[in-house]
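Contributing new complexes? Match this layout with 6-O-phosphono-beta-D-glucopyranose.
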Amino acid sequence: MNQAFPDTFLWGGATAANQVEGAYLTDNKGLSSSDLQPQGIFGPTIERNSDNENVYIKDMAIDFYHRYPEDIALFAEMGFKCLRTSIAWTRIFPNGDEQQPNESGLAFYDRLFDEMKKYNIEPLITLSHYEMPYGLIKNYGGWGNRQLIDFFENYAKTVFTRYKDKVKHWLTFNEINMSLHAPFTGVGLPPDSSKSEIYQAIHHQLVASAKAVKACRDIIPDAKIGNMLLGGIVYPLTCKPEDVLKAHHENNSWLFFGDVQVRGRYPGYMQRYFQENNISITITDEDKQWLQNTVDFISFSYYMSGCATTDETLSTAKGNILSMVPNPYLPSSEWGWQVDPQGLRYLLNVLYDRYQKPLFIVENGLGAKDLPDTEGNINDDYRIQYLNDHLVQVGEAIKDGVDVMGYTSWGPIDLVSASSAEMSKRYGFIYVDRNDNGEGSLERRRKKSFHWYQSVISSNGKALKK
Ligand code: BG6
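Output block (do not edit by hand):
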């Protein structure tokens, strides 16, 4: 492939604390919303206290908390320029409302960032990836409570101050638009909450995100801070104008978050949506001022696309964007997620046309069951194909003139799935010996895709095949 990727392109991988670290109560860590969802973000929420033993897959995950030096060395061997991960808020403020941070939690991330620095791997750090202190849910009612803005701001300022010399790329909330589909995970509210309650909580989170942007600029002037959206394009199922308009509305339902975080105000179509759906939320003049602290860049995940139709007899597709119907022209993964590399080029263009801000693809990948052959090798050609095809389209978008900062594939090492808490839904270039029952040695092993990604990075994309 011709040179498309700039020399500064940040190649790497992306993980999240609750899906890799384990050590869920170690060094004074508090219980998080994620610890209460052992079956994943769409599963039931369970009661737990801090005396529980390790009983669920996520409690130990892949034990990155103790094995990170080995894992970072493997990422470095692939040539990573960047690693996206998150800080577990509950390691820093175990219940969320403490006055003083937990030193042992802060020290862990110092060690982690120092290890990355050894190999010149740039950290890209999410402040909150699908988890929040359970104490803030139990004692304050989650993000429905305005006080959460202050707790989050305090947490953000604490980590910006501590890591200001080590971390120059930050993200606020992972897939902030996901709260519409998974309110407990996103905003700490019960799944049967009303639309008004959910949008009010989202509003508090949007203000908190803007306050974090301001704090980051004040504390680390040479850093860049972005938002993070669950991206995915919705096509009209037919060219019927009704379907086209439905697809437009579906896309706006998630682009709304980008509009607020990039343009600094609520768009007109949302005011109309709120009115027509009897959604009433409180937005103060001060909130409006805060929202004007907009992000430096836009990051997003991309796994799939889907279609919108006004025909209600058609069933909805499986996947991470729930109100879509399958596209008859696209294949699907084993989990029913439709594979659409060209959709990524299209989405990059849509976002760049709309916002004219740098874009960062911070998640993309194929969850698949990997079966080692008789010699224990994992020949994951299907994953290589998926990633190759998506990266070719990223190259095309760059040639279209889109400013793309980097690409971090999801789960460069096998980790626990967010939606179903399975180990067997694997995304990695590195295999981890652990199964869905929690059995296995946790040994790390290079897959075929490990060597492939290494060649893509070392050639700065020239090894990709069109
Ligand atoms: C994204 C999340 O939605 O998709 C990740 O930010 C998640 O946390 C990823 O792991 C893939 O989804 P899953 O359910 O296959 O783990």
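Reviewers usually confirm one structural detail per submission. For this one: The chain is about 40% helix and 15% strand.
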